[in-house]
Design brief:
333 residues, alpha/beta, Quinone Oxidoreductase, Chain A, domain 1, Rossmann fold, 2 domains, seven-stranded mixed beta sheet, 9 helices, globular, binds NADP nicotinamide-adenine-dinucleotide phosphate
Length: 333
């Protein structure tokens, strides 16, 4: 049997991941039992929530010390005694940070087959048609419910989720303003994705630029970051605006995320709704079809940042917190 290289959680990180928080181990792939399938992991999705899973119990329990680090990935079945999956099937699901995954008999719901669609790369099913695209889809269509002419502001707008959320806003006729951490990311948003404006929050005058880019106030905040960025966006919200609380990445590597001005929620009668994409699991297929249609029509563009090598996963996770990715961040195993 082949040797499985795996990344195991050795220590709960403080701040960014330090060398040794994830440790590379090797063990033989176990003999397949009836009902199981063996799949080779091809690509791993790098998600900010992994940093949360390393530290605390949240919507899933924290990963145990010594356990293979939890991660979503795309894997190809190489041997099967499983009723639903055959050799050659490509699957997405919680593969873990490892080279081979044994799929258990009862896991037919946690792994989904990836259809083979011309002009679409398999990795699209980890990004624009996968969990981050679906997050943007449900956050926008179910919570934001954008109306033509409204102003939408998206934080971490050049990331996997934000870039799709902003484009869905454009599809619905909104004025869309993105906030991102480099001039190149901002140029991608305005020049290629059709955002009306993009603001680099690392420039000293970004708050003035945000005010200038939202002359009619903000109706929808698609919030991925929290902290100072959310605090500033809240100041410009219109009465009865909606805040889609998707993520608070600025707080995942430190104690608090803010914002400090929650009184604005009352004064402006804002509706704030947190959500998890998993809440909409029963509708993933239909939503992915709609995202796929937009992509085929050129209304939805995506980009991926690919890091090569399982052993680079630790550095890749840190890129999510230092802004090293544009679009979906993926590790090619
Ligand atoms: N609710 C759900 O079901 C759900 C599902 C998926 C993702 N999410 C959330 O959605 C958000 C985006 O996730 P993603 O997977 O699409 O990641 P992503 O946006 O592709 O990557 C993370 C980006 O966040 C930005 N960032 C990191 N720290 C920041 C800080 N302190 N201040 C401002 N920007 C910062 C960086 O871009 P810059 O260069 O612009 O700083 C970085 O590239 C996260 O909060 C995540 O937890 C929620």
């Amino acid at each position: 049997m082949p040797i499985n290289r795996q990344l195991r959680l050795q220590a709960r990180p403080k701040g960014l991941l330090a060398p040794g928080d994830l440790q590379l181990t090797e063990s033989p792939v176990p003999e397949l039992q009836d009902g199981q399938a063996l799949a080779k992991v091809k690509y791993l999705s790098m998600d900010p929530t992994m940093r949360v899973w390393m530290a605390v119990d949240s919507y899933l329990p924290a990963v145990g010390i010594g356990d293979v680090m939890r991660a979503a990935g795309l894997a190809e079945v190489i041997e099967s005694r499983h009723a639903q999956f055959k050799k050659g099937d490509k699957l997405v699901g919680l593969t873990g940070l490892q080279e081979y995954v044994v799929i258990e008999a009862q896991s037919k719901f946690s792994f989904q087959k990836v259809p083979s669609i011309p002009f679409l790369s398999d990795t699209a099913f980890l990004g624009v048609l996968g969990m981050t695209g679906l997050t943007a889809y449900f956050g926008m269509t179910e919570i934001a419910k954008p109306q033509k002419g409204e102003t939408l502001v998206v934080s971490s707008a050049a990331g996997a989720t934000g870039s799709v959320a902003g484009q869905i806003g454009k599809i619905h006729g909104c004025r869309v303003v993105g906030i991102a951490g480099t001039d190149d990311k901002c140029a991608w948003l305005t020049d290629e994705l059709g955002f009306d404006a993009a603001i680099n929050y690392k420039h000293a005058d970004w708050k003035e630029k945000l005010a200038a880019a939202t002359p009619d106030g903000i109706d929808i905040d698609y919030e991925n970051v929290g902290g100072e960025i959310m605090e500033e966006v809240l100041k410009h919200m219109n009465l009865h605006g909606r805040v889609v609380l998707c993520g608070l990445i600025s707080g995942y590597t430190k104690e608090t995320a803010g914002p400090a001005n929650l009184g604005i929620l009352i004064v402006k009668r804002l509706k704030v709704e947190g959500f998890l994409v998993l809440d909409y699991a029963s509708r993933f297929t239909d939503a992915a079809m709609e995202l796929g249609k937009w992509k085929m029509l050129g209304k939805l563009k995506d980009r991926q940042t690919i890091v090569e090598g399982l052993e680079k996963a630790s550095e890749a996770i840190n890129m999510l917190f230092t802004g090293g990715n544009t679009g979906k961040l993926i590790v090619k195993v």
